[in-house]
Amino acid sequence: MNWYCDAAKGHPIHGPYHDREYGFPLNAESALFERLALEIFQAGLSWLLILKKREAIGRAFAGFDVDTVAAFGADDVERLLGDSDIIRNRLKIAAIIENARRIQALRASHKGFAGWLAAQHPRVKSDWVKLFKKTFKFTGGEITGEFLMSIGYLPGTHREDCPAYDAIRALDPPWMAVGRAFYAGDAS
């Protein structure tokens, strides 16, 4: 998505996300959960739409508090389906709620989502996709790839001449620890 470096420049919505979030390492559970949820919501839609609805989605999903969302029931699903400020897709909403429950389960085995991600690293995208399909709901190749790039586990978010690339390099994201050569042969 290196074209994003040009497209986001000066854009009032894409710009801040590109410059301060996309590709930057994340570890906080709610931030990781939010990013996964946003990528799920984006499937088939534009990223601009998701960024415009991000605040409302966050409110609707309790600030992406994993325990709160994991406890959502049928009434919450109906509430979310009636909320015109978010993406009203039953399959995506159900997947996000189920994924909160699966993240809870990762606490016992890996002390949380961040610990689970770190324990799986490094992997090429195709192996990550297989793992995500076994572990989470509604996580195909594009969703998994974009999620992992957006949190620093896969390369490809910025060109090397992009100022955001230098900011990310200073944070030493997981993919940089193994280098681009590790990922070069992945066909996915």
TrEMBL record:
Pfam families: Adenine_glyco
One GO term of the biological process aspect: base-excision repair
Keywords: Metal-binding, Zinc
Keyword Transcription: no
Source superkingdom: Bacteria
Matches recorded under InterPro entries: Adenine_glyco, DNA-3mA_glycosylase, DNA_glycosylase
GO molecular function: DNA-3-methyladenine glycosylase activity; metal ion binding
Residue sites binding Zn(2+) per the record: C5, H18
Name under which the protein is recorded: DNA-3-methyladenine glycosylase I
